[in-house]
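Dig into my protein:

:::
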Amino acid sequence: MPELFNTIGEKVEQVAPTAAADGTTGGDDEKVVEEIESLCMNCEENGMTRLFLTKIPYFREVIIMSFSCDKCGFSNNEIQPAGTFQLKGARYELRLTAMPDFERQVVKSDTATVKFIELDLEVPAGKGQLTNVEGLLTTVVDDLAFGQEQRREQTPEVYAKVEEVIARGRKMLAGEGFPFRVAVDDPAGNSFIAPDPRDGVGKWEKREYLRTPEQNAALGLADTGPSNDLDEDGNIIPDQVYQFPASCPGCMHPCTTNMKMVDIPHFRQVVIMNTTCDDCGYKFNDVKTGGEIPEKGRKVTLKIKTAVDLARDILKSESCALECPELSLSVNPGTLGGRFTTVEGLLTQVRDDLHNQIFEADADTEASARRNDSLASDEKKRWDEFFDDLNAAVKGEKEFTIILTDPLASSYVQSLADDPSQPDEQMTVEEYDRTDEEEEELGLKDMKTEGYEED
């Protein structure tokens, strides 16, 4: 399979001609390549850096940069995000099961790390790349192979181990290592692995997370930790709103986080948190459940038939996966964070978040986003059909099923039965034993609650 494109420099040639003297190329869809003389890091002679601003489908605007030196032939290609750091970090994971998966587009910013999990191989943050999974793995394997002769002479034991990794990587490229996973983790939130509307649960996953103080420092962002405003005994009083100072993850200006403990009838206590920044308009809402970890997970299945069902209260915890088979919708744990809303509100948020990713959130209008995107026609048709079904479900024009699978049993759906503590006829609730993978993901295998003092 060919790489997405051979070099970023060739991509610039493909998508836009050289700018005219007035800095434009003319035409309605104006595309400009800016050329800047810059010093070659190889021969220290003047070379040419070419910059091109473009949009990545499902993603956002990026700047493609290509440097070339006519004197020594040195060239360098990379990409940079056109905007600022995102409000949260992002981690993408793709499970490859067939050769077409190698064609998935990958944006790797200069702050992102890439890991091929089954190879136990991690690529540290470095030059930004616009490529696909095949190009990413090929580059890693070629880079490892480049220094093998030197390793053979100087460190034979390291040479043997690296040779094993190279052999396994080449088998993967030949289609002999399926399934395996690749993950891109970017604290700046500016990296990306392209999804596919046909992806099922566990195929493609995106998780957003709040940066740690260390990650903020590495990105050059200030970080001030929150202080708690509790009573003298350190207890939170139910139904009382607590406020404590924080720093906005978007602009790093001081802001306020509001926190309130609420009792959900026939469920448990939850903590609702809200952060709003008056400077940049950033808003963040989250719901955290407390209490002990139950012995089993819980699966809730609800059939949505009328507008009354759309108005049911629903709590989707951060550890909960969401599925709607009739809508071909699956949301992995951690994607939306914790949400306490209605069924309609939850679907609306999923729809809006997906639409912003697929049809470019920075477009002025929905029509402009659809006109300007560069999706293949068959792929765009699949997404249009998907959003049509989702819109019909939000409006109550289509019956569907919601399935919440929560290994921590921290999610809730309102019952309309005479006894609200029991499921109604449209809802089933079942407990299940957590898998080893879920236990490992939640850190329960390493948790020790008794006898830890002895350690």
Q: What stands out?
A: Confidence is low (pLDDT under 50) at residues 1-30, 223-227, 361-372. The domain at 224-291 is CATH 2.20.25.420 (N-terminal domain of TfIIb).
